[in-house]
Hints:
Elements: H1 8-19, H2 29-33, H3 40-49, H4 55-68, H5 72-76, H6 80-87, H7 94-109, H8 118-121, H9 129-140, H10 149-158, H11 169-179, H12 185-198, H13 217-221, E1 238-247, E2 256-257, E3 268-269, E4 290-291, E5 296-299, E6 304-313, H14 332-342
Parallel strand pairs: 1-6
Antiparallel strand pairs: 2-3, 4-6, 5-6
Helix pairs in contact: 1-12, 3-4, 3-9, 9-12, 10-11, 10-12
The protein binds a DNA duplex through residues 46-58, 89-95, 98, 125-131, 134, 146, 148-151, 166-167, 189-190, 193-194, 196-197, 202-203, 233-234, 236, 262-265, 298-302, 331-333.
Protein name: Adenine DNA glycosylase
Function: Adenine glycosylase active on G-A mispairs. MutY also corrects error-prone DNA synthesis past GO lesions which are due to the oxidatively damaged form of guanine: 7,8-dihydro-8-oxoguanine (8-oxo-dGTP).
GO molecular function, one term: purine-specific mismatch base pair DNA N-glycosylase activity
Amino acid sequence: MRDGKGAIGESLLKWYDTDARVMPWRVSPQDRASGVRPDPYRIWLSEVMLQQTTVAAVRDYFRRFTARWPDVEALAAAEDGAVMAEWAGLGYYARARNLLKCARVVAQEMDGQFPQTAAELQKLPGIGPYTAGAIAAIAYDEPVAVVDGNVERVVSRLFAVQTPLPAAKPELTDLTAQITPQSRPGDFAQAMMDLGATICTPRNPACAICPLIADCDAQSQGIAADLPRKLAKKPKPTRLGFAYVAMNAAGDVLLERRPEKGLLGGMLGFPGSEWSEAPTPAPPLRSDWQEADAEVRHTFTHFHLILRVFVTRTEGANFTPGGDFAPGDLPTLMRKVWDAAQSADWPQPE
DNA sequence: GATACGTGGCC
DNA sequence: TGGCCAAGTAT
């Protein structure tokens, strides 16, 4: 243990048992005391959903997934399109594709049992260093360092690490390992993340009520809010595109399944042009297309997108039956396209 | 190491 | 309003 930091585990777990939030996927301290064990399936599902995603955004998705697919065998047996539709709106859709791959490996090749070590877990699709550590620590009590963005921030402040991210990652992982206790490593990991989410926040950290204030080098140096240092990000370019919403007399709409790889991979969407500085219009069929008044603006991780939306009524296409389509099955960008189409001045049928 | 990959909330 | 940020992973 690092000098002067010996009490961190104890202080943090005391705070966790009394003050921390209880999530739908978490076993409460009371239940844990009664011998209740975390369900690896639910831990895995929640951790994948929580990758780069806030607790508030995950809650309802987690509830719907576990209600519809209560165990890994049920999820493994689901249709691809059903899982993608249930994930729609949560973002980073490779997670949903890898979720299904992983469920099928576990169900078909591992007798429905997840591996019990971080090293083995990390071999599965969609499970990287963070998620492997989180599952191993929470579900199987492996005393492994669990390092997400919250922990990076907490640890960089505790030890006043000045190295900018992402170069500081190995150092922060090593420091986290030094303060991870042999006892209750899963609760320790969740406590660190809860602390980062609620007290040791990026801006205006609430140091006055922090259970680790006596252990924090950055606080004593008055630089807590300045850490962790981060490299400057590149500016986002703006791309343009065209999107097309065709509907027949029965109210069916024309949708396509996007390719597995790439942006919004595997999701349903409206046909359209490529997205670039100067896109070429690409209507999916000949018809009387009318442009909607409102453009769609959407920002992805690495670029801004402005879409011009065109609508038409026609019978000449392979439409998705209206009963099989709900806007909620679409990624957010395509929901915006749908919304813009509703406010358009639709042409009369040909 | 750098880049691709969503979305919504916050200030 | 626009950039920052969130329980990261794959390539």
